[in-house]
């Protein structure tokens, strides 16, 4: 066989291979994966709506793995693993029984910053490998169901600035893999459940600007991986638990604009990693504990409009405090305006 014949033969084989590949791989996404997404699309049928235009290429005869906002596994099996529709101007209502929530391989569901998007979560039978669930800055409403506790793979849960109401369910404590929890921005009420202390992988907890009330549970001290804790602008009251001193990884602690009262616990001095401490507009009283001088990593301390008396411990600032807008001392920016010195 001459070299020309061999080249033609190899070219034919290549064409047959490419044809076979295109026929077998042109549509990675199976019907059981595409169907819930197409049902989701039907919730946004107004063609004048940006969300409908965004999903106009979501069509039955095309590969859903190539659709806007959809990601699939990298093993070539066509499993839908992510839905990324943040800031997509979605305007509609997602019912709690939407098949979207039950996609068996879904790991990321991000619907955040769709302010006019309404919806609620499944009340039961909700179980999939979700790792990231973000509906922040949407109009999702109702109560956060107990079924949220079934999502055992969840690492990131953000339901901030929504219209959820009622108590945070005890089942939240089942999410042992959770590292980031944001339930801030006037979404919930009642007491923060003791089960919050089960989330020992948590590094970021934000319950600020919420309607939570009562004491901060002692179990908060179990969250020893926590680096960021924000309980500010809330209705928490009573004494800050001594267990707060167990949070030795904490770098940022925001407790401002709350109804906490009594003395700041001595255990605050155990937070050796703390760089930012904000306790302004609180009802804490008495002297600042001397143990606060142990906070060698502290760079900002805000005590404005507080009820503390006496002076900032010399070990972090100065024995004589001029209650001015701010002062820089030993590398610590101290805000102390209008305290009852």
UniProtKB/TrEMBL annotation:
Subcellular locations according to the entry: Membrane
Domain Leucine-rich repeat-containing N-terminal plant-type: 31-73
UniProt KW Cell division keyword: no
Domain Disease resistance R13L4/SHOC-2-like LRR: 105-207, 214-280
InterPro entries: Leu-rich_rpt (IPR001611), LRR_dom_sf (IPR032675), LRR_N_plant-typ (IPR013210), LRR_R13L4/SHOC2-like (IPR055414), LRRC69/RLP (IPR052595)
One term under GO cellular component: membrane
Keyword Membrane set for record: yes
Signal peptide as annotated in the record: 1-26
Chief location category: membrane
Alphabetized UniProt keyword annotations: Glycoprotein, Leucine-rich repeat, Membrane, Repeat, Signal, Transmembrane, Transmembrane helix
Topological relation to the membrane, as annotated: Single-pass type I membrane protein
Similarity-based family: Belongs to the RLP family.
PANTHER family the record matches: LEUCINE-RICH REPEAT SERINE/THREONINE-PROTEIN KINASE 1 (PTHR48057), LRR RECEPTOR-LIKE SERINE_THREONINE-PROTEIN KINASE FLS2 (PTHR48057:SF17)
Protein name: Uncharacterized protein
Organism expressing this protein natively: Acer yangbiense
């Amino acid at each position: 066989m001459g070299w020309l014949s061999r080249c033609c033969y190899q070219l034919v084989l290549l064409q047959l291979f490419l044809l076979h590949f295109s026929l077998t791989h042109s549509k990675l996404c199976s019907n059981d994966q595409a169907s819930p997404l197409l049902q989701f699309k039907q919730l946004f049928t107004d063609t004048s709506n940006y969300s409908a235009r965004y999903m106009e290429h979501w069509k039955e005869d095309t590969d859903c793995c190539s659709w806007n906002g959809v990601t699939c596994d990298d093993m070539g099996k066509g499993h839908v693993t992510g839905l990324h529709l943040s800031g997509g101007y979605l305007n509609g209502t997602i019912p709690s029984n939407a098949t979207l929530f039950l996609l068996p391989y879904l790991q990321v569901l991000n619907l955040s910053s769709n302010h006019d998007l309404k919806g609620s979560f499944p009340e039961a039978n909700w179980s999939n490998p979700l790792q990231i669930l973000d509906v922040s800055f949407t109009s999702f409403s109702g109560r956060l169901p107990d079924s949220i506790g079934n999502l055992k793979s969840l690492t990131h849960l953000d339901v901030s600035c929504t219209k959820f109401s009622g108590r945070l369910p005890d089942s939240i404590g089942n999410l042992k893999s959770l590292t980031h929890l944001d339930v801030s921005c006037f979404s919930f009420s009642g007491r923060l459940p003791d089960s919050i202390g089960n989330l020992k992988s948590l590094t970021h907890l934000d319950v600020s600007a919420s309607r939570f009330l009562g004491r901060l549970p002692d179990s908060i001290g179990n969250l020893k991986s926590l680096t960021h804790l924000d309980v500010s602008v809330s209705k928490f009251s009573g004494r800050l638990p001594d267990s707060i001193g167990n949070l030795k990884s904490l770098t940022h602690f925001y407790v401002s604009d709350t109804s906490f009262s009594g003395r700041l616990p001595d255990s605050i001095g155990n937070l050796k990693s703390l760089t930012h401490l904000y306790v302004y507009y609180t009802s804490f009283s008495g002297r600042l504990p001397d143990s606060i001088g142990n906070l060698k990593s502290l760079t900002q301390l805000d005590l404005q409009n507080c009820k503390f008396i006496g002076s900032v411990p010399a070990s972090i600032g100065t024995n004589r405090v001029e209650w001015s807008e701010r002062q820089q001392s030993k590398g610590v920016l101290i805000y102390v305006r209008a305290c009852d010195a």
